[in-house]
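Practice record 12: protein with pyridoxal-5'-phosphate.
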Amino acid sequence: MPVPLLDVNAQNLPLQDELRATFDRVLQSGRFIMGEEMEAFEREVAEMVGVKHALSVSSGTDAILLALMALGIGEGDEVLCPSFTFFATAGCIARTGATPVFVDSCPVCFNIDLEDAAKKRTAKTKAIVPVHLFGQAADMDAVMSFAAEHSLKVIEDGAQAIGAKYKGKSVGSIGDFGAYSFFPSKNLGGFGDGGMLVTNNDSLAEMALMLRNHGMNPKYYHKYVGGNFRCDALQAALLRVKLREYTGYTEKRQANAQYYTEKLLQLEGVVQAQQEDCGCLESQTLKYQADAAKLVLPVAYDHNEHIWNQFTIRVLDGQRDAFREHLTEKGIGCDTYYPVPLHQQECFADIPKHALPVCEQLAQEVISIPIYPELTQGQKDEVISAVQAFLTSKV
Ligand SMILES: *Cc1c(COP(=O)(O)O)cnc(C)c1O
């Protein structure tokens, strides 16, 4: 039986009656842009993540862009961000006219390396965009103290991590702004594009609110040049149905991660990344390769609540593509997030280059396997035996 990397129907179809009723309610309301459904959704998300203001927007990308615009980031500014992330993180920075300055990552937690960020900061640096990659928080204490020291704004890219926690606080609620995405493959997956921008700052919220709708207030009076970053009422209404189930989805992802970890660690050649080796907890040399290790499993740090948007394994010794081929042959869905770090993307060719050795190595080593909540016991075991078969063929 094939195991897909993600099966959105397994999550959405059990809710189809409620989703249809919701569609009918919105249809009958005749209100399709923003409105009450959206505001109710915003209140519910604000409560879940513990923030004062939540603004629904058109996508996670637009949430990041809107945050940068509200902070006045633009031409001549530099913004620090990881290179090992989805394109939108840096694409938004470039779209404001600012320059994304790429920072290396930690090979243990995959998140931004603050020591490297410190090396890349200049007098032009205005902000930093930490990404909570794969559902695990970046080291926000380090980000916030670095930002405070240099008067930088902080925009948390929580597109993959809504509901994930750092020392008890929801990601997105710690910096000046937090951005979430409801793209269907994210943990709170919608029915099309959608996103949310959150902040605890009243004046930033007000600015973002205006910019979301062409910088307009009152109607047809434009104080700023904003955009159309509005949210569909239908999207918000449908997402409210899934938001009620969200805790359960997260618990299942966590249980799946735990099961994989327990079972895979019993196999010869499999090790788990060690929290103590994390370059972003303490400055130290990274224990990059464990002896005789072939696969390195991800680790959830004790101070984090990891929500496992992806379960991302490092395949050592240049075997990643062989591993990928093997899984594909066995019908196991898998993918590489991300095969090309952003500093090596063609569109950023004009940005001065620094070597980012960890990002470059991760791009060669990583592969994500199915972790979605609705995986059955049989499917999980099938993934595990496919991994086992690969390891056995290598001895
Ligand atoms: C998905 C994603 C985004 C963009 O979200 P969209 O809703 O697809 O626009 C931004 N950053 C990261 C890290 C993401 O994974």
